[in-house]
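G., the chain you wanted modeled:
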Amino acid sequence: MSSKINLITPPDKLFNLSPGIFLIKPSNTLKIQFQEILTHIDEDLNVFIFDQDDYDIAWLLDVASQTDFIVVDIDNCDSLTKTFISFIIAQPNAHYITSDSTTPWHLINRNRIHNLDWIKERFENEDDDGQAD
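Predicted structure as tokens:
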């Protein structure tokens, strides 16, 4: 079975039943890692990306409230996006990457990650749960 990956960027939106992952200001390293992980996911998926040249904050907040998983690369955020990061990472489905050891992001959200391996594991676990014994 082959999966269908929908890539959605501002101002577009997609409403369907596929799980959604939202990458906010991902670095090139993060994008490459995510692309590799996608090769191992065997289900349809919506991938929303708020990239370096994106500044539509209304879209950012709207999509963040609708996706299943949020990944924020805090170190890559511009000052406008960073203004809204506290709100976004306060969501229970948000995960964040940062090398900043000064800002106490952990007081808002304990879902700090260092890579995207958990995404692959999460989808592998869902596949295992859905198989008949």
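The mean pLDDT is 90.

Shout if anything looks off.
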